[in-house]
Amino acid sequence: MNGVHDMGGMHGMGPIVLEEDEPVFHAEWERRIFALMRAMSVWERWNIDMSRHARERIPPARYLGSSYYERFLHSLETLLVEKDFLTQEEIEERMAELAREGA
Amino acid sequence: MSGHTHDGGTELSDIELRVRALESLLTEKGLVEPDALNELIDTYETKIGPRNGFKVVARAWTDPDFKKRLLEDANTALAEMGYEGRQGETMVVLENTPKIHNMVVCTLCSCYPWPVLGLPPVWYKSFPYRSRAVIDPRGVLKEFGLDLDEDVEVRVWDSTSEVRYIVLPERPPGTEEMSEEELAGIVNRNSLIGTAKVQAPSAKGESA
To answer: Which of A102, B54, B73, B185 is deepest in the core (most CB within 10 A)?
Structure first.
């Protein structure tokens, strides 16, 4: 797939930002989404290529505006819905409930 | 600042809510267990990390037979040390020499040898590194503080989800008396990606 993810050789992305003593994760939600992706893969409803494809289908503007774990989240959500584990409505409803509860 | 910020900004709460919604729904349906999630996180925060790679390098520096096996068939040699599994199905080890400097990137995403190095640092997954490592490797290495002589050949290896590369850095001079364990202590993560070298401990203080 010839998309924006295929960025070898592109110009204009700026300097490389290095972080001393970098932690493995930078936020609790990054830990959770990483673990959810790993845990859900055991159901074998998708393989690594399908998972990569889900990430590469992220619309270009969104892809470029997201951090690595945001793309992780977006692709997991796509897979969960496409493989009938969850519906988009369920996810949006639960988000609204959690927001009301002030989670 | 680059336009690609890490995490921050107003979207954070939406992201947090979305992650919590997924976790609560999947837990409710019995598809994931919170304890198992915690254990996965602990594994990648404390057990699988670059220290595995440091031990591999130290062994390769001190055991020529192991080094030979490692360069010929990395997966078999690494499995001897217990390093195998997810995101390391096929691994290839590249030896740096005074005249050849290998470095690794994943232009398409962030493929990385998890069993040996753990999860990749943010810079490895960042757009600047992914885009420029293949078009301006010497410039990229300078940003890491590595200024290679003109006569050193730079080889850039683009990882895929099928094949993941690991650099075997050069053993620095002045470390001949060090044990395998001590050597493991001087290796650094970036040297296994090819964006750094390994330095001998400074003469003052560190004598074995």
So the answer is: B54
